[in-house]
Amino acid sequence: MLEPGKEGRVEITVTPNDTALAYGSGEVDVLSTPRMVALMEQAAVNCVRDALPEGLTSVGISLDIKHLAATPPGMRAEATARLVEVNDRRLVFEVEARDERDLIGRGRHERFIVDARRFLEKARAKRGTPGSI
User: Fold this and answer.
1) 131 in any annotated domain
2) Given its phi and psi angles, is residue 24 left (phi above 0), alpha (psi -120 to 50 degrees) or beta?
3) Backbone phi and psi for residue 42, each to the nearest 5 degrees, phi listed first
4) Domain for residue 1, yes or no?
5) 130, pLDDT greater than 80
6) Is 56 a domain residue?
7) In whole numbers, what is the pLDDT of the chain averaged over residues?
8) Rounded distance, CA 51 to CA 33, Å?
9) Is the pLDDT of residue 133 over 70?
């Protein structure tokens, strides 16, 4: 059941592949903002995965976060997502990331519940559509 208060989490040990240097999002050897964002989204996915009926999944539609502190390779980082609003198929989470010493990021994340098969069919159909790019 999807009710406010439900939580999900994920934890990693930061590796050189998780850094801003590796992602091309900066020139320093610390956890990149894109990787932190991915952890936050993964925590939200983990939060709702078991509560969704077979065939349904959630997709991210917005994220408003702040990256507050740097985390070097070798340290653990954990993201948590707490479901704070359920409005039909729209889900809103408060997300947070921490390393072994500091709060490193926080914000809000929205996801939308979709039929996985139809969502992928629509996305794949774009390949056959002429575009301007």
Assistant:
1) no
2) left
3) -65, -40
4) no
5) no
6) yes
7) 96
8) 28
9) no
Q: Using the predicted structure, report yes or no on whether residue 129 has a pLDDT greater than 90.
A: no
Dist. CA 122–CA 75, nearest whole Å: 40
**Phi-psi category of 108—alpha, beta or left, where left has phi over 0 and alpha has psi -120 to 50?**
beta
Number of continuous H segments (helices) and E segments (strands) in the chain:
3, 5
**CA–CA gap between residue 89 and residue 2 (Å, rounded):** 10
- pLDDT tens-digit profile of 58-86? 999 999 999 999 999 999 999 999 999 99
* CATH number of the structural domain spanning residue 25: 3.10.129.10
Within-domain flag for 132: no
Boundaries of domain holding 91:
7-125
Surface-to-core class of residue 27, CB atoms within 10 Å of its CB (0-12 exposed, 13-18 middle, 19+ buried): exposed
Tens digit of each residue's pLDDT (9 = 90 or more) over 15-29? 999 999 999 999 999
The Cα 3–Cα 92 span in angstroms is 11
Q: What is the pLDDT of residues 84-122, one digit of tens each?
A: 999 999 999 999 999 999 999 999 999 999 999 999 999
- Provide the number of structural domains found in the chain: 1
